[in-house]
Amino acid sequence: MPLYDRRTLAGVYSVEESAKMLRHYRYAEEHMMRIMAGWIALTPELPVKLELGRQVWDCAQHADLLGKRLPELRARAQTSEPPNEAFVAFMQALADREQPGETIERLVGLFRVLKPHLLCVYTQHLSACNPLYEAPTVRILQRLIQETQEHVIHGQILLEDLANTVATRERAVQWQLHLEKLLVAAGGVLGKRVAA
Asked: pLDDT band at residue 195, thresholds of 50, 70 and 90?
């Protein structure tokens, strides 16, 4: 009798589904990296500049890890794919905050909307992985989860320092609500829309 039967080895996601999910994650990480890199020169606050620079590096590493995993899932290496045009629009809305006085909106978009969303999706994916035959995906997701958690904490600290008045808090909440609506309309990074 074999040590593992087919049911033991079966995972929640097929190889094709896993590859597609990783392409979506890579799209988000790659575009986040580019957005943050572009913001560094536009952001007057030095602590924010430094944190963005550090996180650009991490996102580049995440995109590379995801891209290198794809051939092992019978997919082309280093490819990214948005789930739909609505998610592309969400990412563009997040990126469009390019004025020097919009650091609060940048931080809100990253650390209250996109990164917490990715953290939830990565954690759900990890919990569904078969640790036996999806071990490489498990290791990648564990790293993404740990580093994304750190990113969110550091970003929230910066945001707390900047959004320290009623007016700036209201600004932050309004922008968060706007981005949340766009993200929900897109069905998140995986494009899973919920029926109304």
From this structure: low
Q: Return the domain boundaries, the chain.
A: 14-188
Q: Residue 32: which residues within 8 A CB-CB, separation 6 or more? A: 59, 110, 114, 115
The yes-or-no verdict on residue 158 having pLDDT over 80 is yes
Q: What is the tally of helices (H) and strands (E) in the chain?
A: 8, 0
Question: Position of tokens 């919920």?
Answer: 194
Per-residue DSSP letter, 25: H
pLDDT digits (tens, 9 = 90+) for 102-123: 999 999 999 999 999 999 999 9
Q: Residue 1 has what pLDDT?
A: 42
Q: Among the CATH numbers 3.40.190.10, 1.20.210.10, 3.30.160.620, 1.20.1260.10, which is that of 14-188?
A: 1.20.1260.10
